[in-house]
Amino acid sequence: MKTIALSVDYSWIDQAETTLKSIYAHNQDVKTYIINPDIPHEWFMNINGYLKELSSEVIVLKICQIPKIEFLRWYMANF
Predict the structure, then answer these.
(1) Which residues on adjacent β-strands are paired with residue 2?
(2) What is the pLDDT of residues 67-76, one digit of tens each?
(3) What number of other Cβ atoms are within 10 A of residue 33's Cβ?
(4) Which of 8, 27, 55, 78 could crosslink 12 through cysteines, CB 3.0-4.6 Å?
(5) How many CB atoms lie within 10 A of CB 23?
(6) What integer pLDDT is reported at residue 59 of this predicted model?
């Protein structure tokens, strides 16, 4: 299984969807982590409904209080 991490907020949701469509059009068995503060849970449920057919999933990582770059440094060091 391949793993991808994206960090976006709701103002960039269209670009994130385009990126995901490109990834999943050419790959299966992909797990994508989306690090964000404000994307609605329903968006993830909708996307994952389609991705089940590809044995893939999008996982939400909500961050509110920690600056994104600090979280990414911590996450990548512990991954």
Answers:
(1) 30
(2) 666 666 766 7
(3) 17
(4) 8
(5) 15
(6) 92
Is 34 within 8 Å of 62 (Cβ atoms)? no
d(CA 17, CA 23): 10
Interaxial angle between packed helices 13-26 and 41-51, expressed in degrees from 0 to 180 and rounded to the nearest 10: 10
Partner residues linked to 74 by β-bridges: none
* pTM of the predicted model as reported, rounded to 2 decimal places: 0.75
CA separation for the pair 9, 29 (Å, rounded)? 25
Q: How far apart are CA 74 and CA 24, in angstroms?
A: 27
Q: Cβ distance 39 to 60 under 8 Å? A: yes
* CA dihedral over 1, 48, 62, 25, signed as positive or negative: positive
Using pLDDT thresholds of 50, 70 and 90, give the confidence band for residue 58: very high
